[in-house]
Write a structure and sequence with these properties.
Blueprint: H1 2-23, H2 30-37, H3 44-48, H4 57-61, H5 66-71, H6 77-86, H7 90-117, H8 125-173, H9 178-188, H10 192-206, H11 211-222, H12 225-240, H13 244-300
Length: 301
């Protein structure tokens, strides 16, 4: 009966909270108002991603809580950049966070009611503690997933950037200028990294900004230092006539060495993780063998 009362109280509280958020929505910030007035993506990163994103049931269910989470300061600046890398909207992400948190909060109560109906009730502290733990885990899990996916996307961009540098070197060796080499090399490749580069360069051309400034801004938004360094090297060549081919050759070699080192480190980490199941099996076998002897010794004492 206690678990049932807890479930009813939680449901009533969530319903009243949803009704209050719907009836008295929080005041939107100036940034949100300007974004509604100008629906065109303001950054080349958001425009470069595939924006055909369909909101799932989790995003639709948690949409009433988006305003409340925004008032609390979510998402953070780092998480907003990760969402921009993945081309996901902050509203859909916050809605999924709310849905996952509420699901984790209510799931232990539902399980407790089911066991109570079957004649095996839990102590009230068990579902309460599990509800808090699962609620926190469910609320933080979307952030962890987004950070991992954004890091994989950045790794893929660095691999594409290595090929982009090679293409620029070939075009420069053929007598092309710096700006034309940047534009033509971006038009050769495929995938979202080259799409982001093309959008950034096209935006720079339409807004009469130098292409290296656009590449530097793209590197800052994506948090990719290699792209920022490339923009600095090309800017030096475009403004002071530096030897851009030698500089790009050195940066491409450095990038390939860094990628090889990262791949080797990832392989070593995967090898170490593969040994964990074997260790657990060995520990379980030892416990299985020595447990009867330990029980006999403790009983004799």
């Amino acid at each position: 009966m206690t678990v049932l009362m807890m479930l009813l109280a939680a449901g009533i509280g969530v319903g009243l909270w949803s009704l209050a958020v719907w009836a008295f929505p929080p005041r939107p910030s100036l940034e949100e108002v300007l974004a509604r007035l100008d629906p065109v993506p303001s950054t080349p990163v958001a425009a470069a991603m595939v924006s055909a994103e369909q909101d799932g049931w989790a995003a639709r269910a948690g949409r009433p809580f988006v305003g409340l989470l925004r008032v609390s300061g979510l998402p953070t600046e780092a998480l907003s950049r990760d969402l921009a890398v993945l081309g996901r909207s902050t509203e859909a992400h916050l809605a999924e966070k709310a849905t996952a948190g509420l699901a984790g909060l209510l799931f232990p109560s539902v399980v407790g009611v089911a066991f109570a109906a079957g004649g095996r009730p839990f102590p009230w502290a068990v579902p309460a503690v599990m509800a808090i733990l699962l609620g926190v885990v469910g609320f933080l899990l979307p952030d962890i997933t987004v950070r991992a996916e954004a890091e994989r996307s950045r790794v893929a961009f660095r691999h594409a950037l290595s090929a982009y540098l090679s293409l620029i070197q070939v075009l420069l060796a053929g007598g092309a200028g710096v700006e034309s080499a940047l534009t033509d090399a971006a038009g050769i490749g495929h995938g979202w990294p080259f799409l982001a580069l093309r959008r950034a360069l096209r935006t720079a051309r339409e807004t009469r900004v130098s292409p290296w400034e656009a590449l530097g801004g793209l590197g800052g938004e994506l948090q990719i230092s290699e792209l920022t360094e490339l923009a600095d090297a090309v800017a030096l060549a475009g403004t002071e006539g530096a030897r851009v081919r030698q500089s790009l050759d050195a940066k491409a070699a450095t990038l390939r060495v860094r990628q090889a080192q990262n791949a080797e480190a990832d392989a070593e980490a995967a090898t170490e993780r593969m040994s964990i199941p074997g260790v657990l099996i060995a520990v379980g076998f030892i416990l299985f063998v020595f447990y009867p002897a330990l029980t006999q010794i403790t009983r004799s004492l």
